[in-house]
């Protein structure tokens, strides 16, 4: 249970109620009109992280133990439009499940807000696992914050789906990376900060490691004459806050365009270690 309460303690106080006045869809000059396939790509994955492990009091209801499923988005979510009724989880037998409650916590700082934690009953890991997640309510993204390298706009995600549901037995992997600066960066040294996000909460897998040790297993890459040049971060920050985001501090001034992580260095709350993982650094082309 050690990782369970590290990851989910902060959601004890959240409310499952939805704001009555969702924002209207607007366009942002940074990206212009979104094509339907680009909106669909906003929902990256879902991660069947825990099966009948979470206590139901996390949803302020008595009952049996709950499943936990982080759902990951490319763009940040407007918390005021978030409700458990925004989601349907489909299991392998075709049954539809509505979450008992949902939350952006613990990954709810500025520059995060891209992972929605669903709690409820979503199937069983071996016999009848979840295979699809649908957005069926008016769930909105928000504009990205100043200092982020991605580029978003306010869009309604109603109708998007993903069948990229990572099974319970699989370990976590990277689903997002961006360059951040200004007050979003927590690095006290170095020349650039790369923020990365895992599709589930992570803690160190190697015995004796703490989160502050994880920087040595990440590698960032820049381009030089068409070749990828490796750079190891000098430190890691935004740690020990029980979420799925890290900030990597690099001393190079060369633009980091890709980040990788060695296998068997972090684990999810189910104690499954990661495989080798890599992700391109997102950027906004205006």
Structure in words:
- Strands 1, 2, 3, 6, 7 and 10 form a six-stranded mixed beta sheet that branches. A four-stranded antiparallel beta sheet has the order 5-4-8-9, with no helix packed on it.
- With 286 residues, the protein is mainly beta.
- Helices cover 4% and strands 32% of the residues.
- The protein folds into two domains: 2-8 and 28-166, no CATH class; 174-280, Immunoglobulin-like, CATH 2.60.40.
- The radius of gyration is 18 Å and the shape is globular.
Write the layout of secondary structure elements.
Layout: H1 2-8, H2 36-40, E1 43-47, E2 50-54, E3 66-73, E4 87-91, E5 96-97, E6 101-103, E7 115-120, E8 130-135, E9 161-162, E10 165-166, E11 174-180, E12 192-198, E13 203-204, E14 218-224, E15 227-231, E16 235-237, E17 245-250, E18 258-261, E19 266-267, E20 277-280
Parallel strand pairs: 1-10
Antiparallel strand pairs: 1-3, 2-3, 3-7, 4-5, 4-8, 6-7, 8-9, 11-12, 12-17, 13-19, 14-15, 14-18, 16-17, 18-20
User: What radius of gyration results from the CA coordinates?
Assistant: 18 Å
- Overall shape: it is globular
Oligomer: single chain
Number of strands: 20
Span of the ends, CA to CA: 46 Å
The domain tally reads 2
Helix content: under 10%
Contiguous low-pLDDT stretches (5 residues minimum) are 1-35
What is the N-to-C succession of helices and strands? HHEEEEEEEEEEEEEEEEEEEE
Instruction: Work out the helix count.
Output: 2
Overall pLDDT confidence: 88
| Major sheet details | 6 strands, mixed
The proportion of residues in beta strands is 25-35%
């Amino acid at each position: 249970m050690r990782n369970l309460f590290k990851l989910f303690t902060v959601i004890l106080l959240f409310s499952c109620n939805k704001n009555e006045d969702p924002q209207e869809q607007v366009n942002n000059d940074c990206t212009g009109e979104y094509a339907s396939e680009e909106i669909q790509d906003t929902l990256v994955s879902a991660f069947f992280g825990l099966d009948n492990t979470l206590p139901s009091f996390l949803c302020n209801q008595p009952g049996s133990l709950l499943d936990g499923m982080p759902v990951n988005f490319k763009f940040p979510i407007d918390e005021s439009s978030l409700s458990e009724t925004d989601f349907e989880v489909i299991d392998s037998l075709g049954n539809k499940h509505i979450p008992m409650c949902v939350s952006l916590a613990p990954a709810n700082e500025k520059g995060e807000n891209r992972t929605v934690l669903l709690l409820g009953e979503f199937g069983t890991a071996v016999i009848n696992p979840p295979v699809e997640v649908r957005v069926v309510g008016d769930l909105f993204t928000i504009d990205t914050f100043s200092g982020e390298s991605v580029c978003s706009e306010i869009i309604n995600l109603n109708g998007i789906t993903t069948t990229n549901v990572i099974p319970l037995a699989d370990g976590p992997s990277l689903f997002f990376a961006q360059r951040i600066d200004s007050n979003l960066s927590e690095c006290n040294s170095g020349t650039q900060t790369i923020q990365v996000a895992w599709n589930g909460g992570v803690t160190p897998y190697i015995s004796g490691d703490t989160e502050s040790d994880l920087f040595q297993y990440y590698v960032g890459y820049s381009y030089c004459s068409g070749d990828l040049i490796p750079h190891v971060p000098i430190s890691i920050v935004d740690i020990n806050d029980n979420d799925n985001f890290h900030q990597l501090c690099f001393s190079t001034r060369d633009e980091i365009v890709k980040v990788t992580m060695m296998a068997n260095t972090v684990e999810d709350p189910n104690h499954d270690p990661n495989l080798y993982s890599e992700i391109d650094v997102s950027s906004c082309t205006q």
